[in-house]
UniProtKB/TrEMBL annotation:
<dbReference type="InterPro" id="IPR036291">
    <property type="entry name" value="NAD(P)-bd_dom_sf"/>
</dbReference>
<feature type="domain" description="NAD(P)-binding">
    <location>
        <begin position="7"/>
        <end position="199"/>
    </location>
</feature>
<dbReference type="InterPro" id="IPR016040">
    <property type="entry name" value="NAD(P)-bd_dom"/>
</dbReference>
<dbReference type="Pfam" id="PF13460">
    <property type="entry name" value="NAD_binding_10"/>
</dbReference>
<protein>
    <submittedName>
        <fullName>SDR family oxidoreductase</fullName>
    </submittedName>
</protein>
<dbReference type="InterPro" id="IPR051606">
    <property type="entry name" value="Polyketide_Oxido-like"/>
</dbReference>
Length: 211
């Protein structure tokens, strides 16, 4: 499969690139600063330096891809538009390139639903939503843009991310949070996302994933 990955130099993006290559995929990693990409050179890896916020600059990076994955997200707790502007630009570029399959990484913390236990629903998440209100607001608007598109999208919602070693084991829930899903290793998140790429049952669905 030919994959284009945005946010490829971040923690989750790096795991996605590495694991995709290990599984035999062809990867185009889109980065702003190639020096930050820690994945070794590979004959199936193409590194593209581009401003993701400029649709015209990334059309060539998504052209010919079987799927596009966005691991973009805010880096701090202050006001931000990174997620929504990135989503808008990627959607526009995919439209111009005629590419349909899109997976966007969002966050389970901003959603309270029946999948959450009482403590999570009434204590933990209300606090989390206040602390991370700017980032969650940005991700919420990014999700809206993705849902409003005509792409074959999947929105993936992980909880707190860690850099622990991947176990290859994770739980998922469709259009519902994972009960007791507090954390997930970035390596396991990447494994789960790669498994979703060819799963038509996840198209136009929200998939929560946790260890």
């Amino acid at each position: 499969m030919r994959l284009t990955i945005f946010g490829a130099s971040g923690g989750t993006g790096t795991q996605l690139v590495r694991q995709a290559l290990e599984r035999g995929h062809e990867v185009t990693a889109v980065v702003r600063d190639p020096a930050r990409l820690t994945v070794a050179a590979h004959d199936r890896l193409k590194v593209v330096t581009a401003d993701v916020m400029d649709p015209a600059a990334i059309v060539s990076a998504v052209a010919g891809a079987d799927a596009v994955v966005s691991a973009l997200g805010p880096r701090d707790s202050g006001p931000t538009t990174v997620s929504q502007n990135g989503a808008r630009s990627i959607i526009a570029a995919m439209g111009k390139a005629g590419v349909r399959r899109f997976i966007m990484i969002s966050a389970a913390g901003m959603v309270i639903d029946a999948g959450d236990g009482p403590v999570t629903r009434y204590v933990a998440k209300p606090i989390l939503k206040r602390v991370l209100r700017h980032g969650f607001a940005d991700m919420g608007r990014a999700e809206e843009k993705v849902r409003d598109s005509d792409l074959d999208w999947t929105i993936v919602r992980p909880p707190q991310l860690t850099d622990k070693k991947g176990t290859g084991r994770y739980r998922t829930a469709t259009d519902l949070n994972v009960r007791g899903g507090i954390r997930i290793a970035r390596a396991d998140l990447a494994t789960g996302i790669l498994a979703l790429l060819a799963d038509d049952a996840t198209v136009r669905r929200h998939i929560s994933i946790a260890n």
